[in-house]
Amino acid sequence: MKIINIKGNTFCIDTGMTYIPFYKINDEEIILLDSGLAKEREELDRLLSENGYQVVGILCSHAHIDHIGNNSYFKKKFNCVIAMSEFEAMICSSLVNLKVYYSSQSLSQVEKNFGHMVCETDILISNTQDKIYVAGVKFKILQTPGHSPSHISIITPDDVAYLGDVLVSRGIMRGAKLPYEYILREDFKSKKKLLELNCKKYIVAHKGVYDDIRELVSENIRLHQTKAERVLALVDRDMSKEEIMNAAIENFHISIKRTSKYLIVEQMLTSYVEYLLDTKQLTLKMKDDVLKYSPCSE
User: Fold this and answer.
1) Measured between alpha carbons, how far is 284 from 291 in angstroms, rounded to an integer?
2) What percent of the chain stands above pLDDT 70?
3) Are 30 and 23 in contact (CB under 8 A)?
4) Rounded (5°) CA angle 237-239-240
5) Under a CB-based contact definition with an 8 Å cutoff, are residues 267 and 113 in contact?
6) Across the strands, what pairs with 234?
7) What element of type H or E holds 2?
8) CA-to-CA distance for 253 and 177, rounded, in angstroms?
9) Percentage of the chain modeled with pLDDT above 90
10) Whether 166 contacts 148, CB under 8 Å
11) How many CA atoms lie within 13 A of 286 on its CB side?
C-alpha cells in the first residue's frame, strides 16, 4: 500500500485493488472517505501507524463490503465518528437489516459473509442534503443513488470529488463480466448528474484519478447498456429467472464454484433483468404456475 497526494490536503491510499481517499486535517488527524475491505485491515493499520495518523472520522460513500469493512474496527480503535446516508446506515445497523438488503441469503449466511459490516453511525445524511461537517471539516455532498440505494459522492475542501462506485476506471471496465448496480435506471441518472460537476480532480474507488470525467461517464453508461443488451438477447423465449441465470453464466463465462458466488451473481443479474422490465424490453407473466420473462414484441 502507498499514499498518493491528490491535491492539497486530499490524499488516497492505493490498496492495490482500490483507492481509499482521506482528508488530512493536520499532521496527525485524518478523515477517511470509506474504510476498505476487512482483509485490508492489517496493512491499513500499519500504514496509518507508520505515518502517525489518527482517524477522527469516516465519511462513507455507501454501505458495501469493500467500503465499510473496517468501520467498526476503526471506530473502536480511534473512537472516531462515522457519517453515512440515512438508508445506508440503516442497512448496516444490524444483521436483520443486512438480511433485508441481501434478501437471497439466509440470516446465518449474512452473518458469516457480512456480519463485520454492522456498525453504528453517528451522523446521518438525508437524501436531500448537499453538505456535511465531519470533525469540523465541511464536505459537499452529491446524491448519486443507483449503485446502492443511497450512494453519495463527496467533494473535499480541495475541490476533489470522490465518486465512490458511480464510475469505474477503463481498466475495470475491460475486465467486467457483469458489473453490479442496485437499480440501473437510477444509476444512469446519477452518472449523468456527474456531468454537472466542475471539480479540480475526481477519484474513482475502482480505480483512478481524473482531471475530466465526461468521456468516462459515457463509457460507463455504454458498458451497462451493452451488458443489458446481451442479457436481453439471452431471453429468446419464455424463461424463468433460473433459466436466464444459467444462460448468463454460460454466455458471460462466469465461473461459479460456491453458493455465495452464485447468490452474488444472481443479484447482479437481477439489476439488468429489472432494468429491462423498467424499460419495457422484457415482460413478466405467469405460465404453468411459473414466473416467466419474455421479450416484448415490437
Assistant:
1) 7
2) 100
3) yes
4) 175
5) no
6) none
7) strand 2-7
8) 8
9) 82
10) no
11) 2
Q: Which three cell numbers stand for residue 278?
A: 423498467
Q: Is the peptide bond before 280 cis (omega within 30 degrees of 0)?
A: no
Residue-wise pLDDT for 189-201, tens only, equals 999 999 999 999 9
Place of cell 471506530: 75
Distance, CA of 204 to CA of 219 (rounded, Å): 14
Which residues are within 8 A (CB) of 287 and not within 5 positions of it... i.e. 6 or more apart?
238
Kindly give the residue spans of alpha helices, DSSP state H, lying in 235-285. 241-251, 259-278
Average pLDDT of span 247-273: 88
**DSSP tag of 280:** T
pLDDT at 25: 97
pLDDT for position 298: 56
How does DSSP classify residue 197? -
Q: What is the pTM of this model?
A: 0.93
Helix (H) or strand (E) holding 27: none
Q: Which residues contact 4 (CB under 8 A, 6 or more apart)?
A: 11, 12, 13, 14, 19, 209
Rg over CA atoms, the chain: 20
CB 81 within 8 A of CB 123: yes
Place of cell 475502482: 206
Residue with cell 448537499: 130
